Input
Amino acid sequence: MINSLNQTIEKKTLAEFLQLAETKPEQEYITGKILQKPMPQGEHSVLQANLVTAINQVGKLPKLACAFPELRCTFAGVSIVPDITVFEWQNIPLQPNGRITNKFEIPPDWIIEILSPEQSANRVIRKITFCLAQGTKLGWLIDPQDESIVIFEPNVTPVVKAGPDLLLVLSVLGDWQLSAADIFSWLNFN
Output
């Protein structure tokens, strides 16, 4: 039973959780608890769509990396649905015939979360740092409220970027550059 947004629903095993029907917004299974994600709103949707498109424009055709919105990843006892996951091309799970699989059972190479107004920043940070401990190479926490992006790397102190600051991206994407200002400019519809 849902108490309120971002609250524990009920305790189940990971196997039991994976048998449940998908919901909108998605539920995640973290540290033995089922948690409801907040429903995306305008800023969140615009940032997510534009960022997936931008990453795929650089990474997909040359088969360097691919960005996925709201992709369920189940690994190391959790089942999460980051706002955006990016996998280096060679890490994308494939069927024997070369077709992409439906189940991603590995951590993403890059996890991107966009903070919603009613969302707990610490809960999202815990998710990002858990992924980093499991092999994720890069994490971003985008905060539209103050137009900043926190960059997370394994074994490195997080760094906050804003304005013209260039953002760290997966090294496989070469010399692609994107600033915090570039990302937040997508919110202006004038």
Remarks:
- The helical segments are 14-19, 42-59, 121-133, 180-185.
- Residues 38-185 form a domain with the tt1808, chain A fold (CATH 3.90.1570.10).
- The chain has one domain: 38-185.
